[in-house]
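Protocol step 4 of 6: structure prediction from sequence.
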Amino acid sequence: MSLTLADLAFDRPPGLQATTPPEFRGRDRDDVRLLVSDEDGHRHSHFTRLAEQLAPGDLLVANRSATLPASLPALGPFGRMLLNLSTRYAPGLWLTEPRFSHAEPGPLPLSAGEILEVAGLEAQLVAPYPGLERLWFVHFRGDVAAAMSAHGRPIRYGYLERSYPLSAYQTLFADRPGSAEMPSAGRPFSNRVLSTLKAHGVGVATLTLHTGVSSLEVEVEDLDDLTLYAEPFEVPAPTAERVNAARSGGHRVIAIGTTVVRALESAFDGERVQPSRGFTGRFIRPGVGGDAVNGILTGLHDPQATHLAMLYAIAGRDTVMEGYAEAVRARYRWHEFGDSHLILNGPAGRDRPVAGPTA
């Protein structure tokens, strides 16, 4: 099935972005709404009641990557700017996104060979990423980790009210630093949510995929022509074994976020998930992947976001778009500090009705 950019479009009124984390509004981190979409339709719940939507034996898979303070102040040939680090490919060599500011993206008037001053380091522009002209390979001279520690901030965009500390961008699972942006589907998890999942017989396993920047607009009409840059991942043997055991036992494997789907699909041989590590630029869409999982727990994605194609591969376009229409109607909140969406392509595993939407 070939997709175009128009297939990822939907109407969303202004004002539905989550502009601040729940805990900065006097609420708990897990105090967000949960929309559940499956073969029975679309239901409203709360994230603290996630276990009620799952069945004993189901396996959730989380990304344990921790977020870096990857947004660095920089000085270029035309003045002050930001350089958002994305992905490290070799010592000193990073893929980056130069921006005018957190609210104003590029492309910037830059040329290969130019020297930038980035958080006290000298950095040379090498070349733009083929097919993604807003991203540049940059070679640093000096200690990038130390520069991030001293001068870096979490990457943020213009819809947020203000800047927030790095701790606001870490999930409960985060213990392996490496992501430019938070694997945000795992953000609402709390110890009490994990306790209820365990009591309900739902397992949790982990893998790693270090995410790069997510702010790039799709610039092709036919999504078969889309370029994705490669990101590092690892599916360890214990996680592969648990995923395969759940699948062979007739239980569901549910990814916590699109990053987990990409990692599992990159390790899937058509029948089993193999222990794997490396880089993946896999673009999952209908007819290309979506077979390693039975569902996904994720945030709400923007109109024309390529992640929507992945959701279509997992549950079908009609289910996803009907769910998004319901999220808009009920005024769910978008982006990394917003509400959650559980999409299942099998039986819901619930045994009682769920309450209506909460504020």
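Step 5 (inspection) to follow. The chain has six helices and 17 strands.
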